[in-house]
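Ticket #4471: complex job returned nothing on first submit. Input attached below:
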Amino acid sequence: MAWVAVKRGPYARSKNELIARWISLTALAVDLVLVLCLWLSEPHSVSIAGGAWIAETSRAWLPSLGISFHLAMDGISLLLVLLTLFLGMAAVISSWTEIDRQVGFFHFNLMATLTGIIGVFLAVDLFLFYFFWELMLVPMYFLIALWGHERRVYAAVKFFLFTQLSGLLMLASILGIYFVHGRKAGTYTFDYFKLIGTPLESGTALFLLLGFLAAFLVKLPAVPFHTWLPDAHTEAPTAGSVILAGLLLKTGGYGLLRFAVPLFPGASIELAPFAMTLGIIGILYGAILAFAQSDLKRLVAYTSVGHMGFVLLGVFVWNEKSLQGVMIQMLCHGISTGALFILAGALQERIHTREIERMGGLWTAAPRMGGAWLFFALASLGLPGMGNFIGEFLILLGTYEVHPVMAAFAALGLILSTVYAVLMVQKAFFGANREGWRIHDLEGKEITVIVVMVAVILWLGLYPQPCLDTAREGLLSLQKSASAMPKENYIEIFRRQQ
Amino acid sequence: MTAHDYTALLPLIILAAAPVVIMLTIALRRSHGLTFSLALGAVILAILALLWKPSLSSHKLTQLLVIDGYAVFFIGLILVAGLFTLLLSYGYLNIHKESREEYYILILTALFGSAILVSSVHFASFFLGLEILSVSLYALAAYMRMNGLCIEAGIKYLILAAFSSAFLVFGMALIYAETGTMEFFRLAVKMAPGVGMKPIILVGTAFIIVGIGFKLALVPFHLWVADVYEGAPAPVTAFIATVSKGAVFAIMLRYFMQIDMPHGNALAVFFVCVAIASMFVGNLLALFQNNIKRLLAYSSIAHMGYLLVAFLASGELRIIAVVFYLVAYFIMTLGAFGIVTVLSGKERDADRLEDYRGLFFRRPWFAGIFTVMLLSLAGIPLTAGFIGKFYVLAAGIGSVLWTPVICLVIASAIGLFYYLRVLVVMYTPLPEAAEAIGYSMPAGILALSMLMVLLVGIGVYPGPVLEVIGTIGALP
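Support reply: We reran it on our side without changes. The output follows.
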């Protein structure tokens, strides 16, 4: 199995502190090539529990409890793993000059976080999933607490507590479904494929689903649980912000997609109106708050809240269009927000401030940076032709089918995001250069990263079909496994509720 | 007594003989190295004797003791912990000006007492073992005679532990007065759930729980623990936190596994309350500590609360969860206090939070080990503490103990605060280059490295340990 090496590769290599940067970069590149090969080689699908999977590996780990080291990859995981490796490389390159102390330890933490994230995307054993879920926290905590900006300790502790507490609630739910399944079926197992379709009483299911939602909504983040995000994103070093915004948030979306809804289809229907409302609140609230920020990184952080609102909405709409939209939205948001954080980091390295009020007129000083900034701001507001547009459009389309009013509110978010995105670029890069900034423009490595990111965004915007095809099988089988929720019934339920 | 009986008793005999031998050696020649080697040799010999056992089948020796799988496992655990304590103590004693040799006698008698304790099935041996253990600990806690705090710790421990022993004996007497027996398995018959709880038995059991609660420092019997942990020499603190508490927990589990405690009765409710109170009080008080030893003391209260949640569960997961968590707790507590030990100087122990500022930049290895230990105490994956907490949660949820489980989740989140605080301090650079504190202690460093390997090894691949725990099996 090619990609056991994929998962273990970065981990084994990252411990070596010598020339840590190159080692990390090479490891990630090798993995990226391996996964790309896997993608392009028209993989034979492995059939597990009726679904089509690209690859699978399973080893016994704690057989007495029914825990196995079980990883599997379908189209959804494949795309997200690709995103992880890609952004991982971008993060390593973007911190090339920013991080100047404890370089080895920094890269150890970076790679450990990435390992945890890849593990989350691949694990199909609930215990293993939780294991990776927690594994990514500690190194992330160190990344923020040791290499972050002014209020780093506060931000790191807040991040850690939010995610850890919600993670423990998820663990309680995982154990809950483990025992319920064990009592009914007689075999105690944490295996995703066996747990799926466990018949649950509606009260229990709702209770257990809430445990999972706690973890995923905090990570996503959905609105009442988002307060850790602006702090963590703002105070983290560039690489940390890129990984947080680009990847960690995606684990929340992925968790909803892969675990929360398929494991508890009935309870998900009951909760869907609330979750969708939360999603819409997130879209609007994130956009409005982003508009009010004066700190560049904080602004970008709040846009994430808005964009992840779309993901939450799309997951709970749960039809093919919206799920495809969720996939594209996650990929594009990862890249565009990652790019914005890289640019914000590059800017901060040069002018040592993140205050938008103090910027202005930077375009003349750094036209390449300004251009890149404008591009990703436009991508983030969902300009047609860029990937984010496809994602948000598909989600809205899917939502419209089941709930036109919600779709209308969500579409408002698109307008609001235009306001903050344009305003941000205008304030920072145009106008008078009051402080007389003279900065050097983007350089070789930075340009390479940005150009590749631009290319990917455009590709996803103009020709997303390959990604849609790759994800389709996985999404269909997710829908099938949550078959207690056929589309027609779903619409009826909504009609009734209206 | 047959030869077979002696084989079964061999570890205990070795532990009993070793202090006598060492005492005689000291009378002939005072040498720290020699005494240390003798003590170390005795413990290793006892461990070997334990492993050499012909069979693990339960072996009853008189009415007082039984050497079954359970006892063998816990004697082994206690001896290994004793081994690590010895390794940590050697360097620590070397830099202090006290007479060092008697220390080892006390450690060995304490080990002997706890070994008796975990293999006893009779009130008499229960009490005797506990007293041998406690009396050794009084002296150990006050071992650094020139240090005021140390004396204070010793006196406090003496008074409170003596008090708790009095409660314990009184409880035993009440139960004996009613049932006419002191053997656990006979008591089990007389106190079977169907027979009906007489008030006097309930009162007696309550007194026994009070006595045990003192030794385990459960809330509301926890008041001594912070002062004693702070005052006692660091390796002794490690010893009290692990061997003493572990042995008492083991005997409590054995007692209450034989004497069935039906769920929902007054005792079970009492235990739930104590568990919840311990988790919250321990973690909340630890938040405000600037002294590492006190912080770890309060965190140990919380850990005893977690253990009680597993203890309250039923089914086969109960014993696995308790025993696994105890193993993890032993390793991480020894490791954490081990770090305090190796960093301690001549005048005082390295117990202030400030002593750890920038440790990562001065002693990266110690900081790394301490980080792993603290993360394990906080229950983060890749460490034994995580698997332990997982088992505790699994046992709790499997027995539908939702209230304690949810309290455990919230309490662990609170607990994170102070572990993270220590971590942050360690990784904050010092403003100016401060002198490195602590001395070089090769034996201690060896012990710490082994503990770290164990902790991570069990955290990643707990299979073998679980297999061993599985062989303990159900009690007779």
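Chain B has a mean pLDDT of 87. Closing as resolved unless it happens again.
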